[in-house]
Fold these 4 entries.
Entry 1:
Amino acid sequence: AQTVTQSQPEMSVQEAETVTLSCTYDTSESDYYLFWYKQPPSRQMILVIRQEAYKQQNATENRFSVNFQKAAKSFSLKISDSQLGDAAMYFCAYRSPEGTSGTYKYIFGTGTRLKVLA
Amino acid sequence: DAGVTQSPTHLIKTRGQQVTLRCSPISGHKSVSWYQQVLGQGPQFIFQYYEKEERGRGNFPDRFSARQFPNYSSELNVNALLLGDSALYLCASSPVIYNEQFFGPGTRLTVL
């Protein structure tokens, strides 16, 4: 069964500094998607960045970038120039390839709470 | 454009009761997924629907069921509520089944 593990329950970063959130996953599939979602307190979950497993190039979205190591099954998120608005729960998520009958499964990690210090 | 909407925002039920949660996807989105997020944990995938057909199911008991309507809105039903069903229930929509998902604000269910 696929699993997603986030081993850092909480992280802190000074404003304007860089922080890296870790995520490891386990799957026997070769074609899948990985995501990082941000959930601010009492606010909606939003997609931060996504990575297609068949792409070797690491995804980047402005201050957010990933380090995707497929062989190691590692998918870390780097936030550069951290801002106060980055404070939130961050979830790593895995989406399976299309299964029989066109089905999919999504698996989320337990999350990392990021605190940004002024 | 309006985002994903869910109703009600909060709900309090007692053990054994039944509950129906509703979700309206973003206009033009044909896929809806449901997640359960227990306090302090990540979302757990319950169902995904696309074009009114179930296209994904997580490891939840048969007390959980869902459907999608011709206008692509969706309902999640939970029967015989247990204390452990207390959670934030999230709905997410996407244009097609494999695209980025957009989440709604959730319905917080409390079972007493």
Entry 2:
Amino acid sequence: QQQVKQSPQSLIVQKGGISIINCAYENTAFDYFPWYQQFPGKGPALLIAIRPDVSEKKEGRFTISFNKSAKQFSLHIMDSQPGDSATYFCAASPKTSYDKVIFGPGTSLSVIP
Amino acid sequence: DAGVTQSPTHLIKTRGQHVTLRCSPISGHKSVSWYQQVLGQGPQFIFQYYEKEERGRGNFPDRFSARQFPNYSSELNVNALLLGDSALYLCASGGMRAGSPLHFGNGTRLTVT
């Protein structure tokens, strides 16, 4: 049973374009929704995170949109660059245990020149 | 500041053997979590320790065990290794509150033959 669903599995975007990754969850106990970026040979690193009482959060070229009623959230990467090529994981954790993070299956992003 | 450090970086074991993986958290972090990342998938929560006590356990068999030491470093032990235990094992520290991110190490790549 996949608690956090993520799509697409892979994504190819041209340099300067917008990358969009979508996620959905079922468990209403989830209270914190981080996105992680992982490069080959490295551990995941926190990119940006949002709480369900906020509908949108922007940090530089990265924006999270959150729809609490639909239990969906998405990551938009504006002006995508080749250096953004990595695997992105959406995730969720419950209020009772913020360090028990449930990860989605990941999206492999390739930004081509 | 040193990040989360894990050792060894790579390990090859035979089915039925035992393995011990080690983790040192970021200085000042009292919480350590362990995750298993099978190739092509998102990390899965195994254990969380805080102040030397187990605070959470994921859906893993009893062959998996862990402990945390007075200096907050941690060990993950896996007995009777199976081929399916081949994965990247990630250690993370922090993350006890919303907005306090998990900091991951670069993991130990375990191959079981």
Entry 3:
Amino acid sequence: DVKVTQSSRYLVKRTGEKVFLECVQDMDHENMFWYRQDPGLGLRLIYFSYDVKMKEKGDIPEGYSVSREKKERFSLILESASTNQTSMYLCASGKGAVNSPLHFGNGTRLTVT
Amino acid sequence: AQSVTQPDIHITVSEGASLELRCNYSYGATPYLFWYVQSPGQGLQLLLKYFSGDTLVQGIKGFEAEFKRSQSSFNLRKPSVHWSDAAEYFCAVATDKTSYDKVIFGPGTSLSVIP
């Protein structure tokens, strides 16, 4: 089974802190994604990567950056956390085009106070 | 712009009753269509998908969905709901069949199951 592991289930950070959310997948997938999940808004794509060292902005990249130094690891960085970044963050990975499914981690619930 | 709507924010059904979750999309061509389920504390899991062919597709956990082009709908159904089906359900549309970043998720429908 594909496993996508997010390092933290819950995080509480203060406004202005730099925050790292880590994601690791174990199936050699080329494609990795970070989503933000908010009630009534579904999932919104923050950043994605189709290869090591490659990154592309999604629909809501403002206030975030990412790093992909190794194929299996995709990190989401909040350079200076703000209260409006309090949310559930989901990492996903996939292989090839959309005819193969996305595999999701269990999510990190981030609270910024 | 392409969009996905799920008209029902929350649905409550009794265990053993039938279920239909609605999904409508806005897209000019025939898209790829998906239903994902998110159980409490879990990530999303693919239930089923439609790419082409038979408009009635079968998925895991006893779910099925029907693509109706004339109604731009892809409703999810289950004939008899189990308590373990309580979860959040997301409909999704891929407007570009080659890239995941073009997948648009609906707002979700939360399902509660009464014993």
Entry 4:
Amino acid sequence: DTAVSQTPKYLVTQMGNDKSIKCEQNLGHDTMYWYKQDSKKFLKIMFSYNNKELIINETVPNRFSPKSPDKAHLNLHINSLELGDSAVYFCASSQVSGAGTDTQYFGPGTRLTVL
Amino acid sequence: AQSVTQLDSQVPVFEEAPVELRCNYSSSVSVYLFWYVQYPNQGLQLLLKYLSGSTLVKGINGFEAEFNKSQTSFHLRKPSVHISDTAEYFCAVSKINKFYFGSGTKLNVKP
């Protein structure tokens, strides 16, 4: 009964490969997010979706493409992986969007290592 | 642009001692303030948040934080820590649903 789940937990791959990370929330929330946490622990928002619609798209290379098939799922596809993509990627969700007051619920993270 | 500064990357403390984790933010407009905790190999979870009203906010696990507008600070405190409080703590501000996180403070509670 995990609230926000991500798969896989660990992902090790070669440069140039394409990979996907999946996220699901069972909280009934309308908004989902992807964050990237680098080796210095900085956590930076990448994307946000509200009811399957993209609402935040930070300065992220277009090799990263989020997809939301329904409001409970937000997947992240990465093309042509680079060494600098190595990080922990967190999915999160919140009930509503727009006010910035809502608590975000985070998944356990996916540690991506690009060799 | 918003920025969040957590001045201490690591804070070692003995069990049952008090602790303060510092957070300063820069913003020319009103923001909402949050503290999240990340236990090893887990995602972040909310400790407490300040939206409005009383500047002293109480959260889970005995933590509290005080919003100081003049000093643009939101320091986190606990009067007596436990071994189980060992974790990474993140301060965050939000504005129009964009969240900006600090770089985290690792709290290491020693027996």
